[in-house]
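User: Hey, my collaborator sent me this sequence without any context and asked if I could get a structure. I don't really work with proteins. Can you help?
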Amino acid sequence: QEQLVESGGGLVQAGGSLRLSCAASGRTLNNYAMGWFRQAPGKEREFVAAISWSGGNTYYPDSVKGRFTISRGNAKNTVNLQMNSLKPEDTAVYYCAARRALNGILLYTDVGDYVYWGQGTQVTVSS
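Assistant: No problem. I've predicted the 3D structure and written it out in structure-token form, which is a compact way to encode the shape of the chain:
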């Protein structure tokens, strides 16, 4: 079973940046499409970013487009989320997720599409 571990969360002032990483233990993430989601207290888990296993396709919701960038690490067992121009409304627990993909083009945006999840990392943006 895949084990995903997120890191890089923390406290940052509005306008600042953070870089989250997600690593798979024991194997590479080849053939896995990846996603980042977040969940604020009292709210449902929401989609933040997705990337195909080839790395060639990415997708973001309007709420983070132009500020967040998802990328795959050179080691093929990490996925990163660079978050710039952070806002207080970005405060949440951030989760990475993975699932095997049929090809290198597909990516997924729904919570139910993913099979493996990390434990989450807290991101707090102060105003």
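In plain terms: The longest strand covers residues 92-100. You can pass these tokens on to your collaborator as they are.
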